[in-house]
Write a structure and sequence with these properties.
alpha/beta, Rossmann fold, two-stranded parallel sheet, globular, binds NADP nicotinamide-adenine-dinucleotide phosphate
């Protein structure tokens, strides 16, 4: 499958490119800067220069079989960037995917995005923006999967997770988040599903079948 990863230069994005390639897919990495191209190529991906906030982002999506959103404004920017990237940028990319007739969209969201009141005070605005983008995705005809992980770590993959409509506060490795997003591409039971996730005891494939 040709898969576009938005946020490909990020920590999770890089793992997505690497694992997609290892799984026999053709990964395309949406990046913002020329100097990030070499890293994407080194991981086995094809770099595509774009910005999810650009109105014409469709040129990056054209020809893909699936799109993954792993971009994010990060903790060091203000509320304006959270709105521009995490909410509006995500919706912009979803709309481009819809307009091009591509069916599969995998969203990297966050635990508590469906209920920001569950999150800490300083994350409530971010969680609301993530939740709004998720709600837009749910309103489309796309075969979406919305993955809502707990705190992301740099631990090695265990390939074992706990999923649920809501799960207890916890952490999960970016490696297992990336593996779950890729497994969801080819697991029809994960289509039209939104779930929270932390590290756990169930193999990823089995967990997706249980949704
Ligand atoms: N941290 C957590 O504990 C946690 C928990 C749950 C969910 N999440 C979600 O998981 C996402 C991925 O986390 P991460 O730590 O792997 O991300 P990360 O390393 O912060 O990477 C985010 C990437 O998004 C890119 N980006 C920012 N604005 C963009 C734009 N306008 N257009 C295109 N790309 C853009 C950045 O590009 P540059 O490289 O050019 O800056 C960066 O490469 C987060 O953004 C967050 O929404 C995080």
């Amino acid at each position: 499958m040709k898969v576009l990863v938005a946020g490909a230069n990020g920590h999770t994005g890089r793992l997505l490119i690497q694992y997609l390639k290892e799984d026999g897919h053709e990964p395309y990495g949406l990046i913002r800067k020329e100097e990030q191209k070499a890293k994407i190529e080194e991981l086995g991906g094809t770099p595509v220069l774009a910005d999810v906030t650009q109105q014409d982002v469709g040129y990056a999506v054209k020809g893909m079989d699936a799109v993954m959103f792993a971009a994010g404004s990060g903790g060091s920017t203000g509320a304006d960037q959270t709105e521009a990237v995490d909410r509006d940028g995500a919706i912009n990319l979803i709309k481009a995917t819809e307009n091009l007739g591509i069916k599969k969209f995998i969203m990297l969201s966050s635990i508590a995005a469906g209920d920001p009141e569950r999150g800490p005070e300083q994350l409530k605005h971010y969680l609301k923006m993530k939740g709004d983008a998720d709600e837009y995705l749910k309103s489309t005809e796309l075969d979406y999967t919305i993955v809502r992980p707990g705190g992301l770590t740099h631990d090695e993959s265990s390939s074992k997770i706990t999923v649920g409509e809501t799960v207890e506060k916890g952490t999960i490795s970016r490696a297992d988040v990336a593996k779950t997003m890729i497994a969801a591409l080819q697991e029809p039971n994960a289509y039209h599903k939104t779930f929270e996730m932390i590290s756990g005891d169930t193999q990823i494939e089995e967990a997706l079948k249980s949704l």
